[in-house]
Design goal:
This protein is of the alpha+beta class. Helix content is 42%, strand content 20%. It has two domains: 240 residues, Alpha Horseshoe (Serine Threonine Protein Phosphatase 5, Tetratricopeptide repeat); 107 residues, Immunoglobulins (Immunoglobulin-like), CATH 2.60.40. The protein has a five-stranded mixed sheet. The chain is globular and about 75 Å long.
Length: 366
């Protein structure tokens, strides 16, 4: 049944009910656990905390209510991990390791390797990289060969230079060769979970060292379907920019011999919150088949009246000679945390292999 109620905030993963669940499961694995003290501390000012602050709060309150050594605490938390009913809630356990276990490197590495199989230790491992980079990276390189896909993913995800919701790893950002062996070990991984991480890691690097990524991918054999998948997704930002070498790597480097027919946006005038539909036909003008990457860009109006383009992926296809393909894409024009919308004329451009071949527009009413 449809509802107009907004989705609950992400931070509600750590709501009062979930905190009670954690306390109950802790009591089951450690009967002496002071659940009342834990809940009193964990719920204090909870409404004002962000999701990451709530995650850290759980870790801090567990530490405050576990009157034992770090190693003994790890044993209790190991027993707790498989009983938690949320993968993201499990992230509080690696946070515990990063906060209270940097003095015990080897046992902390083993703990992170274990805990990552229940959620992810991608945020926690970065604190060890920051404090003991070479030693930690060596462990992660060994993890990249592990039989468990969660551990292999951690090897790539944990050393991403621009991991969302975390601080940047300046050393890897400055020199991507530092983590190159990890990426090379994972370049044909059977796990999609791992391949997504490798692609995101490489896409991070394209922001600072695009030529390094292009050189690396040109040196990999893309005959392997898993490696080819990584390459396509790793190059998504460069492809949106129409970068010739990136397009060539995925087989779409040639000049598009096509024309765009009947491009339009409907409705042409909307109020904020409504949906537009872009449609057009791509028609080949030559006899041979072509590999095409088709995207579209919207020139969003800014507060000062100028515009800023945002490129959206649409479709990659092989178009036979003299063939045509009808394409359509709907998009809601609504406020986002990352974008505000303003009234005015918004141009829409069709991009084929990075070239702008047709344009139309829609208007947002004030």
């Amino acid at each position: 049944m449809a509802t107009d109620q907004p989705a609950p905030a992400l931070k509600e993963i750590f709501n009062a009910e979930r905190l009670t669940h954690i306390a109950t499961e802790m009591s089951a694995v450690y009967p002496e656990f002071d659940a009342r003290a834990f809940l009193k501390m964990a719920n204090d000012g909870l409404a004002e905390l962000s999701i990451m602050q709530r995650m850290a709060r759980v870790s801090e309150c567990l530490h405050a209510t576990l009157p034992m050594s770090y190693e003994a605490s790890l044993e209790v938390l190991r027993a707790l991990a498989p009983r938690l009913n949320s993968g993201f809630v499990s992230v509080s356990l690696p946070h515990y390791v990063a906060t209270y276990g940097r003095h015990a490197f080897e046992s902390s590495m083993e703990a992170l390797k274990y805990f990552t199989t229940f959620g992810s230790a991608e945020f926690a491992i970065r604190f060890f990289l920051r404090s003991d980079f070479e030693r930690t990276l060596a462990v992660m390189q060994a993890w990249s060969l592990d039989e468990n896909e969660h551990v292999r993913r951690l090897a790539s995800e944990g050393c991403r230079p621009r991991l969302p919701w975390s601080f940047r790893l300046e050393q890897v950002q400055a020199d991507p060769r530092l983590a190159a062996a990890i990426l090379d070990n994972l370049k044909a991984d059977d796990s999609l979970y791992v391949r997504k991480s490798v692609a995101n890691h490489l896409n991070d690097i394209t922001k600072d060292h695009p030529d390094w990524v292009l050189d690396t991918l040109e040196g990999w054999s893309l005959d392997n379907k898993h490696t080819a998948w990584i390459a396509r997704h790793a190059l998504r930002s460069l492809i949106k920019q129409g970068h010739p070498r990136a397009l060539a790597i995925i087989g779409a480097g040639g000049k598009p011999e096509v024309e765009i027919i009947d491009v339009k946006v409907e409705p042409a005038v909307i109020a904020l919150g409504e949906k537009i539909t872009l449609s057009f036909t791509v028609r080949s003008t030559v006899e041979n088949s072509q590999r095409l990457v088709i995207d579209y860009a919207i020139d969003y109006v800014k507060a000062n009246g100028s515009t800023s383009a945002k490129v959206f992926k649409l479709k990659a296809l092989t178009l036979p000679g003299k063939a045509r393909e009808f394409l359509t894409r709907g998009q809601h024009i609504k406020e986002l945390t990352t974008r505000r919308h303003y009234a005015g004329r918004h141009a829409v451009h069709v991009l084929v292999n990075g070239e702008r071949l047709a344009s139309t527009a829609f208007e947002i009413l004030s």
